[in-house]
């Protein structure tokens, strides 16, 4: 990431940009460079920040590595969360369908009982009516 400054020009005559290096030797240290520094440019370079102490050169890269690991874990957890949310939506739809089915069951069983009662009553009537005929 870089941004232009308003007062310093590089050897090309353009405004220099402030960039940040993330090397182990200069982690987070800002420098001034030609806008086209990445692809050659005029070669203008100057440090914006003073040199870092030895301890900073050891601690900051370690912290950056840990931050990258944590960010990777966060990304994995976010992906897992999305998957679980999709599964949850499917389960909610299934649950809704099952509830409808459960609410409809008492009516189904009532109709089934009526059918059974009429079947048994019809059978009893047939048996009652058929018995005298068999005796005669």
TrEMBL record:
Database matches in InterPro entries: Znf_GRF
UniProt feature coiled coil, ranges: 67-101
PROSITE patterns assigned to the protein according to its UniProt record, in alphabetical order: ZF_GRF (PS51999)
Transmembrane segment boundaries: 101-121
Pfam families for this protein: Zn_ribbon_GRF (PF06839)
Start and end residues of each GRF-type domain: 10-51
Protein keywords: Coiled coil, Membrane, Metal-binding, Transmembrane, Transmembrane helix, Zinc, Zinc-finger
Top-level taxon of origin: Eukaryota
Protein name (database record): GRF-type domain-containing protein
Gene source species: Rehmannia glutinosa (Chinese foxglove)
């Amino acid at each position: 990431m870089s941004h232009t400054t308003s007062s310093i020009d590089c050897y090309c005559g353009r405004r220099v940009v402030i960039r940040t290096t993330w090397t182990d030797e200069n982690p987070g240290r800002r420098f001034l460079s030609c806008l086209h520094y990445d692809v050659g440019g005029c070669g203008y370079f100057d440090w914006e920040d003073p040199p870092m102490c030895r301890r900073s050169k050891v601690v900051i890269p370690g912290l950056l590595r840990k931050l990258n690991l944590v960010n990777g874990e966060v990304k994995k957890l976010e992906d897992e969360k999305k998957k679980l949310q999709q599964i949850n939506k499917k389960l909610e739809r299934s649950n809704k369908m099952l509830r409808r089915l459960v609410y409809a069951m008492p009516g189904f069983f009532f109709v089934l009982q009526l059918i059974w009662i009429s079947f048994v009553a019809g059978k009893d009537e047939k048996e009652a009516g058929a018995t005298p005929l068999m005796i005669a």
